Amino acid sequence: MIILTTSATAQSLSVIARTYSSTFTMGIRDDSTNVSVSYGITTATTSGNYLTFDNTFNPVLVENHYYDLHLYADFNYWNTNYSFWNLYDEVWETDANQKEDIYRDRIFCTDQDIDQLNDNEHYELNKGQYTQYDGYNNDYLVI
After folding, report:
1. CB of 102 closer than 8 Å to CB of 19
2. Does 77 have pLDDT greater than 60?
3. Comparing C-alpha atoms, which of 139, 133, 108, 102 is closest to residue 30?
4. How many CB atoms neighbour CB 95 within 10 A?
5. Cα separations (Å) of 46 from 10, 13, 17, 23, 58?
6. b/e map 110-123, b = 16+ CB within 10 Å
7. In what side-by-side order are the strands of the sheet with 11-15?
8. pTM value?
9. What average pLDDT does range 15-28 have in this prediction?
10. 26 and 73 in contact (C-beta within 8 Å)?
11. Given this model, what pLDDT does residue 11 score?
């Protein structure tokens, strides 16, 4: 799962993809509202085994929402038709409905600092909403 923030600035994503390409389409779908948005990524780089790219989300991601992430090569994009002519069973003048999956994952949006590896900071569902009352000494039971 990828954790992103509600920031309006560019956020960096690094994924281990099925295929490594510098140009592809990123689609995200909000699980709560079922609204899908597509972004054209043209400046992805390969760094070791990771496909790294930056994206500015517009509209801005919503706090505490889950999103479905889908990276794919769209064959309808100009000059990226990778299908063979003899395997293509439609008329060439029509748009192809073929997509090559590059990566699929889930996104969770939160503004909390989460660093489980170094600082042992975990996500708190009710952070700032619930305080534990500790005014009495409850060491014994009255029966």
Report:
1. yes
2. no
3. 108
4. 9
5. 18, 12, 10, 12, 25
6. beeeeeeeeeeeee
7. 11-15, 50-55, 45-47
8. 0.71
9. 92
10. no
11. 93
